[in-house]
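Bug #77: duplicate submission created two jobs. Keeping one. Sequence:
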Amino acid sequence: MQNNTRHFAAIGVLVVIFTFVVYWILDLVLLFPPAASVQAVPIDTLIQGHLWLIAFLFSLVVVVMVYVLFLFRRREGDEGEGQYFHGNTTLEILWTVLPMIVVIAFGYWSTVILNDISRRPDNEVIVNAEGYQWGWNFSLPNSDTVTQELVLPVDTPIRMDMTSKDVLHNFWVPEFRVKQDIVPGRTTYLRFTPTIEGEYTLICSELCGLNHTGMVATVRVVSRAEFATFWNQDVQTASSK
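Kept job's structure:
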């Protein structure tokens, strides 16, 4: 019993150490682009939570496997049979119940974040987006102006009303974190609030044909005054949807 406690303690310490090491490696390798929207903060937090869980589960499996293979390997000259034991009810209950609790907890966390980032704020600005093979058209409601450059006001809730001319596309600006499919024959919506002025790249992240990788557009986040000047009209806000 004392030996078992010693082994469990050693494995526990090694799992904790390797969890931090694996998380550090993942965080180093997975270079996130700058967070440039209000919605990016909770999404990044959720991703970090998943990375910690991945690091822990990977460390748990690898540490136990290597520890057992190294410490309990057959020694030279040992021809005896290993100690036999039949099941462990407590352990079987734990490795069934604990993962279920973790899955439910992450599911609840994800649902709360999804509801939060998709909630309709007051005075959101509507921008129309039309995807086609292989480009983008942008306009404001009740405006004849159409441009291939997406210009947005900073620190202002945006609602993208998106349609497709032909096939399935996807609206994704990595710095904003949020993304949404654009489906032929219907209008889909995406909400976000840009927080940093600058120039970004809009990417279609849904395979849509031979020139899919070339379906990009420039996104500029500017002041509200510059936004109104660019579109040559007052900023229009949504009523309800």
